[in-house]
Amino acid sequence: MTDMQTATITDDEKARILQERLKMGFNMVPFTQAMGLTIKEMSADKITAEFAMQPQLIGNVFKQVLHGGVIATALDTVGGAMAMSGAYVALKGTPKEDRATRINRLATIDMRIDYLKAGRGTLFTATASLLRVGKQICVTRMELHNEKHELIAAGTATYMY
Amino acid sequence: MTDMQTATITDDEKARILQERLKMGFNMVPFTQAMGLTIKEMSADKITAEFAMQPQLIGNVFKQVLHGGVIATALDTVGGAMAMSGAYVALKGTPKEDRATRINRLATIDMRIDYLKAGRGTLFTATASLLRVGKQICVTRMELHNEKHELIAAGTATYMY
Amino acid sequence: MTDMQTATITDDEKARILQERLKMGFNMVPFTQAMGLTIKEMSADKITAEFAMQPQLIGNVFKQVLHGGVIATALDTVGGAMAMSGAYVALKGTPKEDRATRINRLATIDMRIDYLKAGRGTLFTATASLLRVGKQICVTRMELHNEKHELIAAGTATYMY
Amino acid sequence: MTDMQTATITDDEKARILQERLKMGFNMVPFTQAMGLTIKEMSADKITAEFAMQPQLIGNVFKQVLHGGVIATALDTVGGAMAMSGAYVALKGTPKEDRATRINRLATIDMRIDYLKAGRGTLFTATASLLRVGKQICVTRMELHNEKHELIAAGTATYMY
Q1: ipTM of this predicted complex?
Q2: CB distance from D132 to chain B under 8 Å?
Q3: Which of A86, B4, B22, D158 would be D109's cystine partner, CB 3.0–4.6 Å?
Q4: Closest to C113 (Cβ–Cβ): which among D28, D56, D110?
Q5: How many separate domains does chain B show?
């Protein structure tokens, strides 16, 4: 019975299940949870997360703008989720346990952030897409917009697994 | 009287007063205060800040390591403080009000972070030094070590004023 | 006569003249000329340059791929040309001599390059667009494709003027 | 006889032989050879290369300074040589053929360069050291100085193997 049921789960469905698990996992990370950051959408080629402006996210009380570290956190989160989703597909064919071990050890190697506009707004949306995905590393591009669709920051990060 | 007193304040003393003010200012930033990050030492060529491990700074509950965003926040904070201190010296000769306006508008343009080792530890120290300082921009180099003096992350950032 | 003629030159025409001069200027730079890199198109928001594969541009004789330095050169060239064109528009209103002086002193502050695919091909196209443009600095995004439209490398650079 | 001779070659000697081969290999790369760049010293933790100013390396004829692409080429070369040397040590214990295959496929993933001072001078020295070295990736830090020991540029690069 179990085998037959397993057999009926397609690759797409498996990827969808993984994405839901990753979404739940990322939404439970202590630091981003404290910040109110939530992954909203997750597919094989795009991730979207949101967070609202809050007093404790302020970096400059006179200008009432987001701290650069908040922006870095949001970009690294969507980049990491995108990398995990990409790695899952890229590691197809790898023995199941091995694949899980490698996705679990995924880590950011480096990240560049360009702060393009002061972080003013009430609701911020972070998105990530894949620039490169291979058997060992993955490169993602990330953006942060406010509710007026202004581009606040852009980033590029490299992940290893 | 006032003039005579002013005359007795040397450039070094003025820089020292500015550094104390910057230290106080940085230690009151909502986001870094919530994180427990405190600037300890501030001189014309080096900044040191500290923070202790806390449950809400965790990025991966299984590995019990710092979130990459926490590391980015610490590095951007010491880099920014170093840049302000450097800009103050570089803008010597600029009319007083102008100098203050420009230091207040100092902003991160871009930052690169290299995550070199998982963020394990109980007490973390972030340091910054100047790579370049001019009339418009400043480049700083930053490092994060744990209490065992292991290098967790290194960064480079460009600031404008 | 001269004054009247000048009066009839629109801002768009002035920008077009500058772009032609920049194109000529960039195409005469010794290092890029030796490499066969030529700016083909230049507008207010996009720059395109081309170069053909040549034996002396090889970085790995066994793999017959471009040297990473060749790619960096192409990306910095289109990024710099884009920045000059962007700065010209951003500095509108600045006294004419001042504007020229500042555009002439434009310099790369920092650049990140992501090498996404081995540099194989016969004809390479480098493009640049503006991510941010202000009174002091400019951030550009660059890409290098081969004749099969494969993305070889992507970059981000910050320029000061 | 052969076995006994092999047995007398220590790990240090093997590393030294590899370094000599890498030095020869790097010094034969078409693009850097055309530029006059030569690796002078190569050890397990530092690489030094040199090149002289030449008319075709100029990026700005009025300022008579190096092209940013020349600087990128020099930094990527010493970074790559350092990464190969580091990877050789890190892959100790890996089957011999595997180790060779992986070192041969070493490639730059990403690089950041900070252009700190205009590239004026007659003789330039590029150096690289290791920031991180593992089984899959390596991060190096690079610097370029002129004959007056002025720091012209600094860089950080990530290599995969």
Answers
A1: 0.91
A2: yes
A3: D158
A4: D110
A5: 1
